Amino acid sequence: MKKRIAILIAVLALHKADNCRVFAHPASGIVVDQQGQIFFIYSRHGVCKLDAQGKLNNIHRTSGGHWLCLDPEGSFSHTQPKYFERISPDGVKPALIFADGGSPIAVLPDGDLYYVSGEEELTPGGLQVARNSPSGEISVFAPGLARIAEKPLTGLAVAPDGDLFVACPSAVFKVRRDGTFSELVNPIRLEGCDVDYPDNNTNNALPYLRGLAVDKQGTVFAAGTACHCLVKITPAGKVEPILQAERPWSPTGVAEHDGAVYVLEYTHANEPKEEGWRPRVRKIARDGTVTTLVTITPEMKIP
Known about the structure:
The protein is 9% helix and 39% strand. It is mainly β. The chain has a single domain (25-295), classed as 6 Propeller (Neuraminidase). The strands form six sheets. It has a four-stranded antiparallel beta sheet with strand order 1-2-3-4, with no helix packed on it. A four-stranded antiparallel beta sheet has the order 8-9-10-11, with no helix packed on it. Strand 3 and strand 4 (56-61) form a beta hairpin. The longest helix has 22 residues, at 2-23. It starts with a helix and ends in an 8-residue tail after the last strand.
């Protein structure tokens, strides 16, 4: 009997570990402020800042975290400190908001924070979008989206005009301030995708979009993690890969600033962290020139 119990416990432990692998992924958080400073999450180490002179610092040391966003007016609500944290000093704006969990986040100029949530308690991570006001009120936003979008929801971005863009593995939706929404593209089909399914799970739809960014013209840039590429989507819904990452690198996050696009990439992004998650940041200039701004190596010491 004891031997059977031991075997059962081992099987359950293996099953639990295998389930955890399905959901494990490196960080997608990257933003660029008005001064051109780049902030990105180095998984298991914290938030790093790369200033305009190329100096790298760790500004928020933590062992977790996946997402970052900028709060334009610093109106962030402190009602959910367990999940979201303002890591900029008081009075500084735009403020930098850090998400400890796996939920994409975005803040509009009025201070409303949007995040991907569960269906019942509206805690981070799930199948729908929730809105947290500066006063702490939490509500479901665009509830009909959960019935149409492919699950799970994997990315959020705010356009300069205040519209919200939402990604799932193979589609992007545009959501207006009143909660109405439309498909920007659904589904996305890429020719010649260098397929790398998350944790070998072939049920995930390609290109398995993660981080999103939107420019002033309404063009969306999305990290196609499972295809090792950055995807550009025009306001008319035309899809084009504009940056390819060589294995073992894959894009996981993206930011746009002053016409340039900044891409956060990780090694082994679709495999367990034991395979080694190391980040780098590349920049696509207005003229299309690609520059590697920083590559984190295992021996690198970050002050």
